[in-house]
Amino acid sequence: MNKTLLSFIIMLLFSVAVHSQSLSIIYEGQQLENGAAVEINGELSSDLFYEVVAHARVKNNTDRNVSVLVERITHDTITGSLNQFCWVQCFAPWVDVSPTPFEIPASDTTPGETFSGHYLPQGKLGVTTLEYVFYIETEPNDSVSFVVNFKVTPASIDTWKDNIKFGNAYPNPASSTVYFDYELPTTFDNAKVKIFNLLGQSLAEQKITQQSGKVQLPVEQLKEGVYFYSLLIDNQNIISKKLIIRR
């Protein structure tokens, strides 16, 4: 068998396999390959009802009406976040399989709002990866899926500054330990308190991992004198104040 004939047969088999797939997914006007991944970006928000939404349509490639169910598969999720999906109607976050199917007419596509995947970051940064599988109710193995990476990144720190509370150091002057009370509008992955000398050299730091609380920093290793302490978020200096070490 020559190479030209072999290539033709492979292409023909591939074409038949694609054509024989009962369902396909239409995302942003384009047909996705089965199992394809897309990324949807959102900005960090203190609004607990803020959500990032994925919309897709499902096409029935057959010459008969089919009843289709949806299953959500969680590959990775940010702790504390929520997600849910809608298939004609919206379901609670703990529902992984749509309770009722939606009938798609022969050679037709679902209306635009039939399916949507909803991700609520709840003020958390990071990527949650979910897969949505669409399958014929009477033939569960006849399915198609796509993966959504919901990526939430920080908004500009300027939008948060007015809601950040960072108290004065106490005691000040300090001798061995200094404390700072704080309250942030949400949890940041890269928030810390640092102490600098007058030359701007960093001498001590403490990472902030909670949305509010108290930071404790030992300063017994520092000589008597004048220093500065700063709250930094994503390496941006938010607040700087004077600290005195005295013994």
Largest beta sheet: what is the strand line-up?
A: 2-1-4-9-6-7
- Give me the Rg, rounded: 27 Å
Major beta sheet summary: 6 strands, antiparallel
From N to C, what is the helix and strand string? HEEEEEEEEEEEEEEEEEE
The helicity comes to: under 10%
Strand content: over 45%
Full CATH superfamily name of the largest domain: Fimbrial-type adhesion domain
Please name the CATH architecture of the largest domain: Sandwich
CATH class identity of the largest domain: Mainly Beta
The secondary structure category is mainly beta
Q: What assembly state would you assign to the polypeptide chains in this entry?
A: single chain
Query: How far is it from the N-terminal to the C-terminal residue, by CA?
Result: 92 Å
Instruction: Tell me the count of domains.
Output: 2
Q: Enumerate the spans where pLDDT stays under 50 for 5 or more consecutive residues.
A: 8-19
CATH topology of the largest domain: Immunoglobulin-like
Overall shape: rod-shaped
What is the β-strand count? 18
* Average of per-residue pLDDT values: 88
Tally of helical runs: 1
